[in-house]
Amino acid sequence: MVKVLLTGFEPFGKARLNPSGEIVKQIHGENIVTAILPVAYTRSAAVLLALIEEHKPDVVISLGQAEGRTQITPERIAINLDDSHLADNEGILRSDLPIIVGGPIAYESTLPIKECVDAIRASGVPAAVSLSAGAFLCNHIFYVVQDKLRGTDVRSGFIHVPLMDEQVQDFPGLPTMPLDQMVSAIRRLLQVLE
């Protein structure tokens, strides 16, 4: 039986919710370990690496919120760069800094991302491959995990999800998706990875 580690993030900034964390709260299973990561450069990757060490998963999937997206988007590439105009929840701002000094410029996801997109679409939810996880915390943990797991049989990657309907007040004018649709899409995706 394949063991999966599935993570999301806590709410960021002044937002009350984060769809990635809300999805993770609703995913349960005998072979699934879930966790909510802090939106903090100093802690997020460390927490995730500790979970990998503790649980020895076969698959690691991290979810994150992507304002403005209308689809669930598995990410293809993690880049070795922290560069955002946004500070994390601890007030830390990073600009033009490598995540791992001397590390490769980029890593690819080791998830079968096109199969993941097909599985999500089969559940009736819009999905597409994305080439960029940005250069904030989502990309940060994506890169660190890909570096940690390179050369192993553990499949790992990152998936961005849209805002959820309950966030309309926090993000006026931006597209949203019902939480139950996102949960069913991630459940379907997990079946593909078994």
Helix content: 25-40%
What is the alpha-carbon Rg in Å? 15 Å
Instruction: Examine the secondary-structure arrangement and name the CATH architecture.
Output: 3-Layer(aba) Sandwich
- Fourth-level CATH superfamily: Peptidase C15, pyroglutamyl peptidase I-like
Low-confidence stretches: none
Q: Helices and strands: which structural class? A: alpha/beta
Order of helices and strands: EHEHEEEEHHEEEH
CATH class: Alpha Beta
DSSP strand tally:
9
Strand order of the largest sheet: 2-1-3-7-4
Mean pLDDT: 96
Number of helices: 5
What do you see in this structure?
With 194 residues, this protein is an alpha/beta fold. The chain has a single domain (4-192), classed as Aminopeptidase, CATH 3.40.630.20. Helices cover 29% and strands 20% of the residues. It is built from 5 helices and 9 strands; from the N terminus they run βαβαββββααβββα. The strands form 3 sheets. A 5-stranded mixed β-sheet has the order 2-1-3-7-4, with helices on both faces. A two-stranded antiparallel ribbon has the order 5-6. Strands 8-9 form a two-stranded parallel ribbon. Helix 1 (19-26) crosses helix 5, helix 2 (44-55) packs parallel to helix 4 and helix 3 packs across helix 5 (179-192). The protein is globular and about 40 Å long.
